[in-house]
Design a protein that fits this description.
With 179 residues, the chain is α+β, with helices and mostly antiparallel strands. The protein has two domains: 72 residues, Alpha-Beta Complex (Outer Surface Protein A, domain 3), CATH 3.90.930.12; 82 residues, Outer Surface Protein A, domain 3, CATH 3.90.930.12. Helices cover 20% and strands 39% of the residues. The chain has two helices and 13 strands.
Length: 179
């Protein structure tokens, strides 16, 4: 049995879960999320606890068991608390600013990079070298943060670029002087 899949999910007071026709929908104070379910698992809601069970012991059912448990857990956490990813920009002259729904990035290229922010995501720039990506969908928040990071990944020699907060960049030594 999946160690992750068999753990019950405690339902927050504000969250409401509905299961209908292979679709699970979760609503809460921050919004609503829906997810299509596969046929290998069943989801039941009773007494403020959500449980995910698999229908048989096939390899696919075992794989889907833990996956759908975490998807439902992330949906419940997203509509009650939300998710945030913090990005840090390092480099001389590198900065970010928010212009309406456009994120303008100066990253050492000959041009500025403009990123259109999706409507489901909220981006904040508290200072020119910090970008906060937040929303209720964990996968979308991570995807947008990864997209912004991909514009200038941190390089190993000087550490310049966009990195996640707390990410450790493995530094390399530069060229050694000739003998």
């Amino acid at each position: 049995m999946s160690r992750i899949g068999k753990m019950p999910i405690r339902l927050a007071d504000q969250a409401k879960v509905e299961v209908k026709d292979n679709m699970i929908s979760v609503t809460g104070p921050k919004g609503a999320l829906t997810q299509a379910m596969c046929d290998e698992v069943t989801i039941s809601v009773a007494d403020g606890v959500v449980t995910v069970q698999r229908i048989d012991d096939s390899k696919r059912s075992r794989a889907m068991h833990g996956l759908y448990r975490m998807l439902v857990n992330n949906m419940i956490e997203g509509v009650t608390k939300g998710f945030t990813r913090k990005l840090e920009i390092t480099g001389v002259g590198y900065r970010a600013e928010l212009k309406g729904d456009l994120l303008a990035l100066t990253l050492g290229y000959s041009h500025m990079i403009y990123f259109q922010v999706p409507s489901e995501i909220k981006i904040e720039v508290p200072d020119p070298v910090t970008v906060l990506v937040s929303g209720i969908d964990k996968a979308l928040v991570g995807q947008i943060a990864a997209k912004i990071r991909s514009f200038r990944k941190p390089e190993p020699y000087r550490g310049k670029g966009i990195k996640y907060a707390g990410e450790v960049i493995r530094r390399k030594e530069g060229k050694a002087a000739g003998k």
